[in-house]
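Treating backbone geometry as a discrete language has practical consequences that deserve illustration. No coordinates are needed to read the tokens, only the vocabulary itself. For completeness, the protein is quoted in full, as a sequence line and a line of structure tokens:
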Amino acid sequence: MKILSNLEIEDRFLRAFECSWNETLEQYKCSQAQLNGGSRLRPLMVLWGYLATVDHQESADVEYIAKVAVSVELIHKGTILLDDWIDQDEARHGKKAFHVEFDPYYTVILALHMVSDSMVRLKTVLPMDPQLANNYFTCADLLAQTIFSMSKGALEELRLENNILNLEHIKMIARLETAEIIGNAMQLGYYAGGGTDLAISQLFKQLGDQFGYLFQAMNDLEAFSDAEALATHKGAANDDISISRKNLGVALLYNIARPADQKLILDRAPEIIYDLMQKYHILNFILKKTELYYDNIFIKLRKNAALSSEWIEGYIQFMNRMKQKAYGKLGVE
């Protein structure tokens, strides 16, 4: 058997995933730029959760786990359609946003259909093996919990009002909207592969939640690191805070700023906030914290005797690649 590198395994998976994803969009009769683009981070997290259950990564059934991963991507994309409409973003990845190309009513109904379809498809994909019955119900529960958490986070964000600069409240919303789906994606892959070790499942949940928070923090910094690139991506340099949406970077800034500067932040003027972000070195602060988090997580992973050293090193390499992509969006080498 040929020994495949981690990149080759990911490539095989992504090709299988794109095939399943395109089949899904064909059934919707709707292949649009916003639905086709993206980093595929969440499906890849499903893959790495699954890979922990196979003896040799070369034997992984990528076609099977790709179909499982479609359920996670359906939830993610469905919520993105609604998020862009609510935030009045005109574009996504430099292309027209879905609600702009079509209309808000169609957007809402399609998003609802995608989220519900994620549950339906899971039932048709997972093997109904009596010995793994609990795994199926666990997977279904993970998807249900993901939908619940993301919608709860969205509701909390829409009624932020006076909590818009409350760092702990913003962290809670970020966990619900972003971290939850990443942590649950890893667990979904693990249970879909037949995993049964509760300690490993809980570790995957912690890893996903931690990475989800870090990616959200870096994503929120984009408006203050490269506004021009963000405008190309979303159609406008949306800094979130000016439209009463969460931004971890701004909430952190307010938390550490001097009282006189806090008063300036309350005015929510983008140019003032940008200057203060530079003054307090928020980008460097978060990057240093990110590196510390990554180091601690990787140390914890390497101490886990229940996971193979092959899987641990492969996963660490994967997450380092994801981190570098996030850094690239911030213009950081």
